[in-house]
Amino acid sequence: MPELPEVEVVRRGLGPHAVGRTIIGVEIRDPRSARRQAGGASGLEQMLVGTTVTAIARRGKFLWWRLADPDGADTGHALMTHLGMSGQLRVRSRAAVPAHDAASPGAAAPDAAPPDVDLPADLRAPAPSEGPASDPVRHLRIRLALDDGSHVDFIDQRLFGGLWTSPLVTADDGRTSAWGSPDDLLPRDAAHIARDVFDDAADLPAIARAIRRRRAPVKSLLLAQDLVSGIGNIYADEALWAARAHHATPGQALSQVRAHRILRACRAVMERALAVGGTSFDALYVNVDGRSGYFARSLEAYGREGEPCSRCGTALRRQVRSGRSCFFCPRCQRRR
DNA sequence: GAGCACCTGGCG
DNA sequence: CGCCAGGTGCTC
């Protein structure tokens, strides 16, 4: 489920906690979360233990950890993290690790301050009370132990996400490869992903021209991660609503001005979402502290079938296209 | 491009 | 029971 703003919230939360730390242990509770790893669960452990995290980078919805050997040299492989539909990374200081995992009784101490994730102070919420039925810790799949006694937990209800290592390759345009990346290297498994709309190196007019060369529905083009990345079902619908465009309009039918406007709407709506910690409807998406973002209350289209459009009052509609819901205003968003 | 596979749930 | 869910990758 997490789209670009949600993954960026995780990237910002993870960096201050993990960069500079050495991975001292890897506990794989469900090997399916490591199924993309060459060599499987034991391969992942071998690749990670003893390495030091030097940066957390992100392109689109793909997040990766840059790793160095004890001598400080880059290992040449990144730890990839994809959250899929339901993945979370949660950081736990030593004292916050559940009691049954604590090495010694009585080790519990007041929790350290959580990492800053750039949420405005007035939007911070208390940690959710975790009921047994929806307890995300139930879906803990992989735990990374760091050398300061803390852990990073990968939690994933639906198992579409995962952790695996991927060798670094050079970005073909020679520019800094991604947000948070120190250089032009990126994992091979992210090399087919286009730059996202937050990326300084993304050329929106060029992406607009590429959209206009395709006859596919504009929404499916926005969701195709090899044209422009980071956009998922929620923000595609929100951007199309903001730009007054119909999801089924063929790319070829758009003027350059309209195609460019849609891309700028994607960037604008995702920037507003990032500023309030992303979108979450429930405990399934949370930041590294386990807290939810606040953009769900700002959604204009997604999930609002039957509700009045805030611009014109017309009841919003829902259509299913290639298995995914499209929410839109039938009056403001005309097919042209 | 569409369709399905990969999964575990919550809800009606 | 059937339908729904924030994603991606592979096949036709």
UniProtKB/TrEMBL annotation:
This is Formamidopyrimidine-DNA glycosylase. The active site is at residues 2-3, 61, 324. One of its GO terms (biological process) is base-excision repair. Monomer. Binds 1 zinc ion per subunit. One of its GO terms (molecular function) is class I DNA-(apurinic or apyrimidinic site) endonuclease activity. The keyword DNA repair applies.
